[in-house]
Amino acid sequence: MSQPPTTPDRPLPGIASPIAAAVLAGGLVYLIWWAMVSTRTGQRIDSLALEGSRVGSWRLDEQADQLLGTVSVPMVGGIIVAVLLIGALRGRWVAAIAAAVAVAGANVTTQVLKMLVFRRDDLLGLGAWNGTNTLPSGHTTVAAAGLVGLMLVVPPWLRSITTALGVVGVSAYGFATLVNHWHRPSDVAAAVLVAAGWGCLAVAAVRVAERRTPLRDVTHRPGATSVILVMLAICGLALSAAAGFMVWNADPEATDRTTAFIAYVGGVAALVGMTCGGLGGLLRLLDATRPMPRAKQRTELGDVTTPAPSPQG
C-alpha cells in the first residue's frame, strides 16, 4: 500500500536567539560605558592604556594615519551601495535591505550615543581630553558595520573567509585609533558591539522574511571559523582581565612605562577579544539561517510531490 510522502521537518530557526544577542550587545555597550567611563577605576585603567600606547607608536604612526584616512561619509555610502548590489545580484533583497539598514543604523547609533547619550566627567582631575567622551569609536564602527553588511549578503561559501579576514581588518582599524591616541580601548570595544548588535537585528529580520521557505538546508553545518573566533575571544578577554588586575591600583600620573604598557596590552587584547566574540557570534547566527536553495528543493522533493513506492512484501 502506498504511503503518503512526508515533508522533512526542517523549520528555519526563530528570532529569539538574534534578538537576545542584540539585547546582550546593547547591554554590554552600556556596561562598558558604566565601568570604564563613569567610574574612577575604569578611567584610570583606560588612561594607563592610552599612556602605554605611546610606547613605540612612532613606528606605526604613518601606517595608522593612512588606514584611518580611508574612513569617510562617502565610504559609508559606498558600503551601503555595495551590500545592496551584492544582495540584488543574488536575489536576496531582504538580506540586502537588512544589511544596508544595519550599516546605516550602526553608524547613526554610534554618533547619537557619543554626542547625546553618554557623557564623560573628568573623575581623575587630569584635565583636557580626559573629560571628553569618545565612546564608541566612529572609525571602528564604520569598519565593523561594513563587515557586518558583507556577512549578511555574501554567499554562504564565502561567509567564513569574509568574516575571518574582516575581523583582522576591523582589529587593524581599532588598533590604529589606539596608535594615534584618538581612542581608548573601551571606545573600540563598544563600537564593535554596536555594529554586531545591529547585525543581530538584521538576522532576525531575515529569519522573519524567510520563514515562508518550507525547508531548512540541514546538510549545511556551521564551520569551524565561528568556533575559533569565540575561542580567541575568550583568550583575549581573559588576557585583558589579567592585565587589568595587574594595573588595578596604578596611578596614571606617576606610573612607569612597564605598567602603562601592560595596561595597553590588556586594552589591545580586549579589542581583539570583543571583535572576535561579537563577529564570531554573528557568524554563528548566520550559519544557522540557511534555507534550502530552490534548485535543491526541486531535486529532493520535486515541484509536485509524488507518492513513495510501496514496499514489496
Give the proportion of residues in helices: 55-70%
Roughly what is the average pLDDT, rounded to an integer? 84
Return the string of H and E elements: HHHHHHHHHHH
Q: What's the alpha carbon Rg, rounded to whole Å?
A: 23 Å
Count of β-strands? 0
Beta content comes to: under 5%
Biggest sheet descriptor: none
Number of structurally distinct domains: 1
- What is the end-to-end distance? 10 Å
- Helix count? 11
Low-confidence stretches: 1-9, 303-313
Overall spatial form: elongated
Class inferred from helices and paired strands: mainly alpha
InterPro entries: PAP2/HPO, PAP2/HPO_sf
Protein name: Putative PAP2 superfamily protein
Pfam family, one: PAP2
Organism: Micropruina glycogenica
From the structure above, extract its key features:
313 residues; mainly alpha; 0% strand; elongated; disordered N terminus
Structure, described:
Helix content is 67%, strand content 0%. The protein is mainly alpha-helical and 313 residues long. The chain has one domain. Helix 1 (16-36) runs antiparallel to helix 10, helix 4 (73-89) packs antiparallel against helix 5 and helix 6 (138-153) packs parallel to helix 10 (257-287). Keywords: Membrane, Transmembrane, Transmembrane helix.
Write a brief structural summary:
The chain crosses the membrane at residues 12-36, 67-86, 93-117, 161-182, 188-206, 227-248, 260-286. This protein has 313 residues and is mostly helical. The chain has helices spanning 16-36, 40-52, 61-68, 73-89, 93-117, 138-153, 156-179, 185-210, 224-246, 257-287, 294-300.
